[in-house]
Specification:
The chain is mostly helical. The protein contains three helices and no strands. About 45% of the residues lie in helices and about 0% in strands. InterPro entries: BrnA_antitoxin.
Length: about 80
């Protein structure tokens, strides 16, 4: 009887592993984001390297905000 019940019990799906932060802070992550067309046109207007320019602009904003908030444990490096 136990063998028959075991055959029909639902199989538990494995829990996906928790994603940890990258080991090195300078490692880039592949992401997908939605950006207004005008913003995209602005950064693409200077040609290749537009993704780096977006990253640089975001980094500058984050560093400015972190500096304004004071020391935090998750500072941008």
């Amino acid at each position: 009887m136990a063998a028959a019940e075991a055959a029909f019990k639902p199989v538990k799906k494995p829990v996906p592993p928790v994603r940890e932060a990258a080991a090195a802070p300078s490692v880039r992550e592949l992401v997908s984001i939605r950006i207004d067309r005008a913003v995209l046109d602005y950064f693409q207007g200077d040609g290749p390297g537009w993704q780096d320019r977006i990253n640089d602009a975001l980094r500058a904003m984050v560093e400015k905000r972190v500096a304004a908030e004071g020391d935090r444990s998750d500072d941008i490096t």
